[in-house]
Amino acid sequence: MESVSRGTAALLFCALLCWQQEGTASLRARCVQGLCYFQTLENFEDAKKECENQMGELLVPKCKQTAVMTNLLSGVNGRFWLRNIGGEEPSRCSAVSARKGQNATCLSEPCQDRLDGFLCQFEPGNTCGVFQTDAQVIYNTSRGFTVEDSVSFPHGTIATVKKLGAEFPDSKHLCISNQWIPAPWNCEVFGGGCELGCSSATNTCICPANHTIHSNRISCTPHPCAACTQGCERQGDKYACSCKQGFRLGMDQKSCVDINECQEEPDLCANEGKECQNTLGSFNCSCMPDLVEEEGVCVNTSICLHCEHMECEKLNGVYQCVCREGFRVSPTDPTRCEEHCNSRDCKAQCIPNTELEAKDMQQCYCPKGYITDSRNGTVICTDINECEQQKVCDHHCENLYGSYRCSCDDGFELQGHGSCVPLELEVGSGSDFPHLAPSNTPTLQPANQPVPSYIKAGSILGISVFMVLCLVLLGCLLQRVMRTAWSGSPVTWTSVKPLVEKVGLLQMEC
Questions:
Q1: Which of 22, 139, 412, 497 could lock 147 by a disulfide, CB 3.0 to 4.6 Å apart?
Q2: Predicted TM-score (pTM) of this structure
């Protein structure tokens, strides 16, 4: 373990230098029994530093025994730097030349020349053997060289195990002091071997948002739930998208679409006056148009929009139009207001009209069952006594303000228009005489619809005087007829005809 710690410390320094290395088109290496050649264009000093950074030293020239170098450089053409052992000119450094199919030869080259690479030797404790696996293994040194066709690998080499055609590697391993350490390792050394990120607190690989760590512990894969629009659930060893309440999975099994509860469950809003309205992820039971919700019940308020006096109130749970003082709701139209008088006399409703007022006239209206009259220059409405003006009831008539009421004697039943008819025999009574049940049920008869009345001051008095004169003349004619009868003279058509004609003429004038 102590050797592993020392190797890790040295590898930290190597890792810092690794990021400063300029990339090349191809960095290749080959190692045999602790010896490696590295193909890269370098001068002598740079080659020496590069070898030392990988915890090795330039190979000592073995010009008389070139078999080792020939074996290492088999199949390679080029010149490679070796270690200087003294005796060379200061400006020249040791190197070896390799030609395919020929033995390697030692030579001396200007130290500033950039040769094809260098040969580096490593201590036995700073190399690792082949990583044992059935899968393909790719070896890369800490300086980015790809090591091929080798049986030993220098300190800091990373072995990546990957099956042929696989998207992600099976594992990664780092050569430290003769041992292959599996990734993730210390985050300060080559990022712990992680592909995207490493947590220095735990020395574990981490992934960005919507990604998850692969089973190899170093790679990041898109999270199986990343495409889900709302939620995701684990089902055994798999994941499946899920949706919130009120939604269901779409055709792509990833997106979520709203459920229209109102269409799928027509009876959701069964309360009277309510209708179902679909919302995103839910639904609402709301009152239909012209209805408002009060204490959980939908109430019809549409009538309030049509009230003539624009006043409306709730009576016995139902909204009704109300009228201003002096008016009442029309019995035939619940939205209209009509004048109402609850006494014998009421002030008339007059429409201002300057033209009529200039002629000492007014256009006034009275409620049903009232007639206009003038008192002290004021137009009023006086109740019409329908019971006196005409026979509106067969038996009994009761005058009311603005109307009248009919009733019948016992044994009669009140019919329409104030008529009374006898009650029929009770079926199965066994009596020879009709059984007369009392019927005093009154009926309220409305007065006729009032019409506009044009009143001139003193007109009523003139009409009254004219009626009196007509009655006086009629009385005189009747008296003359009676005298003729008392005198013993026969009453003939000749004698009566002039009188009848006069009476008829008088009636027409009246």
A1: 139
A2: 0.47
